[in-house]
């Protein structure tokens, strides 16, 4: 998506550890118009798939997921992050490794908000090694729901998550795929 790629080129910063910082428009300060356009694009990709729920993980997936949910006119559920492993209550829970913080945590969703009736589109801001998406897919499976696909703002194509999910048969649509990034250059997959 050209406007997203241009925004990344203009405002993205590459940090050590292959982390792309886009907090001036995507996950701290939010460019609402841009995110709306991104949601429109994801809607076009998954329109007609029968999606009746959007799922993401807190915190940085919530903004774009909200706009996608608005387009589909369906609820958005965000998985919550729990530091400890002793999760209590009526929840689905799965351990996930955090790419940016390099530690494990549990993500949880109340059993009230994910059910076998759900046809789920999973949304996130970034796709790197795929741990966050795999965790979210696992929660949908625990609930007996169906994953209709994954919509991502920025995929880092040089990491394995996207390829591995597509190989497993999931439809993964990323609005920008970074092919390569160094301190002073960033290229996109065409
Ligand atoms: P994965 O689980 O696919 O390895 O990483 C995806 C998750 O880690 C996303 O939810 C995102 O919050 C975070 N993440 C991974 N890579 C980056 C990055 O380069 N920049 C930012 N801001 N977040 C990232």
What does this protein look like?
- This protein has 190 residues and is α/β, with parallel strands linked by helices.
- The protein has one domain: Rossmann fold (3-Layer(aba) Sandwich), CATH 3.40.50.2020.
- The chain has 5 helices and 10 strands; from the N terminus they run H-E-E-H-E-H-E-E-E-E-H-E-H-E-E.
- Strands 5-6-4-3-7-8-9-10 form an 8-stranded mixed β-sheet, with helices on both faces.
- A hairpin with a 4-residue loop joins strand 5 and strand 6.
- Helix 2 packs across helix 3 (62-72).
- The chain is globular and about 50 Å long.
- The structure holds guanosine-5'-monophosphate.
- The site of guanosine-5'-monophosphate has 17 residues, from strand 2, strand 7 and helix 4.
Mean pLDDT rating: 95
Which overall shape is indicated by the principal axes computed on the Cα atoms?
A: globular
Element-level helix/strand string:
HEEHEHEEEEHEHEE
Terminal CA distance reads 10 Å
Task: Give the CATH architecture.
Answer: 3-Layer(aba) Sandwich
At the first level of CATH, the class is Alpha Beta
Relative strand content: 35-45%
Task: Give the helix level as a range of percent.
Answer: 25-40%
Number of domains: 1
Overall structural class, as computed from helix and strand content, comes to alpha/beta
Radius of gyration: 16 Å
Number of helices: 5
Main pleated-sheet profile: 8 strands, mixed
Which ligands does the model contain, each kind named once? guanosine-5'-monophosphate
Task: Give the strand order of the largest sheet, numbering strands 1, 2, ... along the chain.
Answer: 5-6-4-3-7-8-9-10
Tell me the number of strands: 10
């Amino acid at each position: 998506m050209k406007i997203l790629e241009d925004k990344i080129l203009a405002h993205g910063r590459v940090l050590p550890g292959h982390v792309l910082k886009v907090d001036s428009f995507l996950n701290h300060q939010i460019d609402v118009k841009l995110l709306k356009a991104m949601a429109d694009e994801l809607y076009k990709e998954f329109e007609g798939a029968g999606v009746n729920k959007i799922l993401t993980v807190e915190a940085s997936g919530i903004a774009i997921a909200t706009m996608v949910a608005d387009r589909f006119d369906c609820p958005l559920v965000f998985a919550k992050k729990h530091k400890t492993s002793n999760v209590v209550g009526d929840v689905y829970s799965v351990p996930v490794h955090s790419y940016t913080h390099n530690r494990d945590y549990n993500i949880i969703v109340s059993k009230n908000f994910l059910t076998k009736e759900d046809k789920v589109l999973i949304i996130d801001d970034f796709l790197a090694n795929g741990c966050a998406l795999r965790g979210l897919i696992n929660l949908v499976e625990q609930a007996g729901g169906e994953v209709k696909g994954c919509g991502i703002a920025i995929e880092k194509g040089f990491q394995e998550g996207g390829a591995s999910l597509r190989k497993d048969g999931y439809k993964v649509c990323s609005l920008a795929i970074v092919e390569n990034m160094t301190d002073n250059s960033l290229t996109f997959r065409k």
